[in-house]
Amino acid sequence: MISTKGLSLFAKRRRRNRTALRSRAGGRPRLSIHRSGRHIYAQVIDDAQGKTIASASTLEKDVRGTTGATVAAAQDVGKRVAEAAKAAGVTQVVFDRGGFLYHGRVKALADAARESGLEF
């Protein structure tokens, strides 16, 4: 048993979510997201190989000046990460919200990725 003493509630929720995802993933890659006050990041990770398959964020050069911490920016990141994953041959993933609540920018990114062809 790993001790959670000293961890924040956010860190405990993140650990609990990742553990549950790994048990149910069935070998599928993980769509992991992180959001900060200014940006949102998404990446498709193959945990078996320990490699990132595709990624997108609001920090990329082509969108850096036009986006920020908005729902529209999250939708754009979701579309771009789904396109990059499909180009790499990945269509099915498990969604790792990384301890963030499924609301607002997190939900917008997930919905945009689903609309662009990722299945989760």
Give a written overview of the molecule:
- The protein has 120 residues and is of the alpha+beta class.
- It has a single domain, classed as Nucleotidyltransferase, domain 5, CATH 3.30.420.
- It has helices at residues 9-24, 71-87, 105-115; strands at 30-35, 40-46, 51-57, 94-96.
- The protein has a four-stranded mixed β-sheet with strand order 3-2-1-4.
- Helix 2 (71-87) runs parallel beside helix 3 (105-115).
- The radius of gyration is 14 Å and the shape is globular.
CATH topology: Nucleotidyltransferase, domain 5
Order of strands in the sheet with most strands: 3-2-1-4
Total helical elements: 3
The domain tally reads 1
Oligomer: single chain
Poorly predicted sequence stretches spanning 5 or more consecutive residues: none
Order of helices and strands: HEEEHEH
InterPro entries: Ribosomal_L18, Ribosomal_uL18_bac-type, Ribosomal_uL18_bac/plant/anim
Family: Belongs to the universal ribosomal protein uL18 family.
Protein name: Large ribosomal subunit protein uL18
Function: This is one of the proteins that bind and probably mediate the attachment of the 5S RNA into the large ribosomal subunit, where it forms part of the central protuberance.
